[in-house]
Amino acid sequence: MMRSRTTADILNVATLGAVALLAACQPPLDPVVPAGQAGYDAVSVDPAQVTPQVYALAAGDKIAVQVYGEPELSVSELAIDNAGNVSLPLIGQVRAAGQSSAELARTVEAAYAADFVRDPRVNVVVLEGQQRTIAIEGEVEQPGVFPYSEGQTLLTALALARSPTETAKLDEVIIFRTIGGQRSAGRFDLQDIRGGRSPDVPLMAGDVVVVGYSTVRGAYLDVVRTIPIFGIFRPIN
C-alpha cells in the first residue's frame, strides 16, 4: 500500500520545482561581451600588427650599467631607489624609472659625453625586474594574483586558482585584456575547452580572468544542503 505524502515531501518537491523554475527564468548571458569565435577574436593579438611591449624600469628593479672601455664607471649591480633614480660614478643621480633599458643607456651616454667621456658607449641590463602577473577572480577556489609564464593558457591559469567552485558558471568565463592601450574582453565556455570542442585560450601578462556565478547551481546546492537525503529519495511502500 502506498504511503501518503507528508508535508515535508510536498515542501521538498515544491522547493526543487522552484529551482527548476529559476533555471527556466534565468536571464541570457550579457550580450555586451562577445562569446564563441567572437570572443576569441576580441582578445586575439596579431604579432605583425602589435608593437612588442618594452619593459619600463621601475623602483626596486636591479640593473647593471656597462660603460665600454671605462671599467671604473661601470656598475655590476645597483637598485633603482624609491624615487626612481640611480646613482652613477661622476654624474650622480640619473632618472631611471619610466625608461626602457635602451633609453636609460642613451641618457647615461649623454651625461658622460657632456663633461667626462668622449663618445661613450653604454649598455644597461635588467638583472631583476618587476614580476609579470595575471589576476583570477570570481568563482574559483583560490582567487588572486599569480605569476605569469610564457605559454600560459586559460586552463593552466585556472589550475593555479585551484579550479572553479561548485557554483561556477562554466560557460561564462571572461578574459579582460589590454591591447594597444584599449580594454578588450571575450567570453568563453570552459566545458567546451575541457572537452576539446573549443581551443584553449593563450593568456598574456596583465590579463584578468573572471569566472561567473551560476544562480541555478547555487540555488540547487542550497536546496541539497538544507533538505535531508531521505527527503528527496524516499522509498515507496
Task: Give the helix/strand layout.
Elements: H1 7-25, H2 36-43, E1 62-67, E2 75-79, E3 85-88, E4 92-95, H3 101-115, E5 122-128, E6 133-138, E7 144-147, H4 154-160, E8 168-179, E9 182-188, H5 190-194, E10 208-213, H6 215-226, H7 229-232
Parallel strand pairs: 6-10
Antiparallel strand pairs: 1-2, 1-5, 3-4, 6-7, 8-9, 8-10
Helix pairs in contact: 1-6
Describe the structure.
- The strands form three sheets. The chain has a five-stranded mixed beta sheet with strand order 7-6-10-8-9. It has a three-stranded antiparallel beta sheet with strand order 2-1-5, with helices on one face.
- The longest helix has 19 residues, at 7-25.
- The protein is built from seven helices and ten strands.
- It folds into two domains: 7-49 and 132-232, Outer membrane lipoprotein wza fold like; 62-128, wza like fold, CATH 3.30.1950.10.
- The protein is 30% helix and 26% strand.
- β8 and β9 (182-188) form a beta hairpin.
- With 237 residues, it is of the alpha+beta class.
